[in-house]
Write a structure and sequence with these properties.
The longest helix is centred in the middle third of the chain and has 117 residues, at 43-159. It contains 5 helices and 6 strands. Helix 1 packs across helix 2 (30-39), helix 2 (30-39) packs across helix 3 (43-159) and helix 4 packs parallel to helix 5. The protein has a 6-stranded mixed sheet, with helices on both faces. With 259 residues, it is of the alpha/beta class. The chain is rod-shaped, with a radius of gyration of 64 Å. The relative contact order is 0.06. It has helices spanning 2-28, 30-39, 43-159, 198-214, 236-242; strands at residues 167-170, 176-182, 186-196, 222-232, 246-249, 252-253. It has a domain at 144-253: 3-Layer(aba) Sandwich (Trna Endonuclease, Chain: A, domain 1), CATH 3.40.1350.
Length: 259
């Protein structure tokens, strides 16, 4: 009985070793694997499996390359993203700096405009003051010139034996004369100006002629037209002579009155 039991155990060990050997050959020996598959009618199937296995291995290699390229591309994209974020940050910082500079420039401009308007306001006040002073001076000069003109005209007429008092005369808003006076047979009428020209001569003649037509009762007898001035520009005296106007410049007779 003991020998029979030992033989059985030895047989099982041999069987186990044979299995292990067969599995090892299937795993490692391609020719054996194909021979076994052929014996079992699986050779074609095994060849297809090997072919598919090769395809899968090739695919795995390509997939590995693709994965490496994808990883590399992802790294490049991440790097590009970092650079873009850094660029955006620099741009934002630059924009904020420009905004601050623009804000400062606007403040400086507003302050400059404020100072300019203050200066303009001060200048305007000073200018208006000077204009008022000039206007006041001109009014005083005009009044003193009228007074001088009437005094001088009366003086020269009195030297010729004609006593007549002259002064400013107002007919209406259109007809007002600086020099006006009359006797029974003589009317003296004219203007007093600081500076006269030939145009002033024409204007005065027209004004007097129109007033004579509208108010003939104020121009009785001989009408003596006189122009008193401080300065006569070239051509004025010649035009006054042609027009029969008695012209007096700075208290000096330039021509003879037509009396």
């Amino acid at each position: 009985m003991a020998s029979k039991f030992g033989f059985r155990k030895a047989k099982e060990r041999i069987k186990e070793r044979a299995k292990e050997a067969i599995f090892e050959l299937i795993e490692k020996d391609r020719n054996f694997r194909y021979a076994l598959a052929g014996a079992l009618g699986l050779k074609e199937t095994l060849e297809k499996i090997d072919e598919h296995t090769k395809i899968l291995k090739d695919f795995a290699v390509e997939f590995s390359k693709l994965r490496d390229e994808t990883i590399k591309l992802r790294e490049e994209v991440n790097e590009l993203r970092k650079e873009m974020y850094a660029g955006f940050k620099r741009h934002d910082e630059l924009l904020m700096r420009h905004e601050e500079e623009i804000k400062k420039l606007r403040e400086d401009m507003n302050e400059g405009f404020r100072r300019v308007w203050i200066e303009i306001g001060l200048f305007r006040k000073e200018f208006e003051k000077e204009i008022r002073e000039i206007r006041t001076f001109m009014e005083r000069l005009s009044i003193s010139l009228e007074e001088e003109a009437n005094y001088v005209v009366s003086y020269f007429l009195e030297k010729r034996g004609i006593k007549v008092s002259t002064g400013r005369f107002f007919l209406d808003t259109e007809y007002e004369f600086d020099i006006y006076g009359k006797t029974d047979d003589l009317t003296v009428v004219g203007e007093a100006k600081t500076r006269v020209s030939p145009n002033n001569v024409h204007e005065m003649l027209k004004k007097i002629d129109d007033a004579m037509k509208k108010y003939p009762e104020f121009f009785k007898g001989k009408v003596l037209k006189v122009l008193y001035c401080m300065v006569a520009i070239p051509g004025t005296i010649e035009e006054a002579n042609r027009s029969g106007i008695w012209i007096i410049k700075s208290a000096k007779e330039i021509n003879e009155p037509q009396i």
